[in-house]
Amino acid sequence: MRSEKDGIPQWDREEIEKKLEDESIAFVDVREPDEYEEGHIPGVPLLPMGEIPEHIEQMDKDKTHVFICRSGGRSQKVARYVNEQGLERAINFEGGMLSWEGETKSGKEKRVNDTSDLYK
After folding, report:
1. Would you say the C-alpha torsion 27, 32, 33, 37 has a positive or negative sign?
2. Which residues of the chain have pLDDT under 70?
3. Which of 23, 60, 76, 104 is deepest in the core (most CB within 10 A)?
4. In terms of domain of life, where is this protein from (predicted)?
5. β-strands 90-93, 8-11: how paired?
6. C-alpha distances in angstroms, 111 versus 17, 27, 33, 59, 85?
7. Beta bridge partners of 90
8. What is the DSSP letter of 45?
9. CA distance 58 to 40
10. What is the CATH number of domain 3-106?
C-alpha cells in the first residue's frame, strides 16, 4: 500500500516487488558496503548514504528513484535530501530490507562509481 511521510511517497514490500523490473525506476541501496554484501535485492546498486551528495548533480531529475536501507530510516532521510535538491520523484522503501521477503544476493554485485551506473 502506498502512503506518504514528510512529503515523501512510501512504498511497501509488495509495491517494490511489483515495480522492481520497471526500467523507468532507479532503485538505490543506500546502506554501507558491509550491510549490502550481507544481502541485497539482486540488481539493485549500492550508493552509500554518505556518497549521495557527490552524485546528486548527475542524477536524472526526470527519473523516479526508490531508496532502500535496512529499515527505511536512512532511505527516508536520503529521499528527503534528494527531493530538496530537485529530485522530485524520490520514494522511500518503507520497512527496508527488514521487511523484504523476496530473493536476496550476498557479496559485492553492483557499486555505483559513476552516476550512470544507476541507470544500467
Report:
1. negative
2. 1, 120
3. 76
4. Bacteria
5. parallel
6. 21, 12, 9, 15, 22
7. 65
8. P
9. 24
10. 3.40.250.10
